[in-house]
Amino acid sequence: MQRETTTTGHDELRPERRSHSWAKYLQVFGTFARNSLIRDMTFRVDFIIQLISSTSFVIMNLGFYLLIYQYTNSIAGWSQFEFFVFIATTMLVNSMVQAFFMPNVQEFSELIRTGNLDFALLKPIDTQFLISLQKVSWPSLGNFGVALILLFYSLGHLSDGAPSWAGMLLYPVYVLAGVSILSVSYTHLRAPETDSYLVCRLLLEK
């Protein structure tokens, strides 16, 4: 009976420990994001140039599609604002991958070459979390803001009206799923280009 009581007590503490662990990881990620912003703002001119160049490229792409829709009412059955909702969704996914994942995955091979990966493996934190989210590219989030503006503007001009509540609730889930798929697929495509392919696979499968 005493053993069963002890086991039950441990089971009751597990959700609290998990929530405490999630809170710690969110706090650590906030520190990573703040340090990345401080590092980017150290070179403010470079930060502003990257922000302007990335948003300008997105706006030029939108101008191209606006020009096409001046001569047609639909593309493959998609009206102008339906297509812009789709474009805004791809921009959201790409901007999140470029901001949170790309700066870190590009350094996989460099960490292994210099031996700094050993220090990451010894730290008292999940290695995949540390390596995947240690740096944040704040200029890439400029596209995220443009995508949100385009998304809400296009949703307000849909001919079929606003989407259902179920669709709006599931939309962030699908966006996060797209971010996860694109991040993992990029790593599997890029990793074989280096001699560190097996190490990258081990980190992903941990």
Give the structural class: mainly alpha
Shape: elongated
* Whole-number mean pLDDT: 77
Low-confidence stretches: 1-13, 191-199
Content of β-strand: under 5%
Q: Report the major sheet.
A: none
N-to-C terminal Cα separation, in Å? 37 Å
Find the count of extended strands (DSSP E, 2+ residues): 0
Whole-number radius of gyration?
Answer: 22 Å
- Please bin the fraction of helical residues: over 70%
**N-to-C SSE string, H for helix and E for strand:** HHHHHHHHHH
Distinct helical segment count: 10
What oligomeric state is this?
Answer: single chain
Describe the structure.
Helix 3 packs antiparallel against helix 8. With 206 residues, this protein is mainly α. It has ten helices and no strands. The radius of gyration is 22 Å and the shape is elongated.
Topology:
Blueprint: H1 2-42, H2 44-69, H3 80-100, H4 102-105, H5 108-114, H6 117-122, H7 127-133, H8 141-155, H9 165-190, H10 197-204
Brief overview:
By secondary structure, the chain is mostly helical. Helix content is 78%, strand content 0%. It is elongated and about 60 Å long.
Structure characteristics:
10 helices, disordered N terminus, 206 residues, mainly alpha, elongated
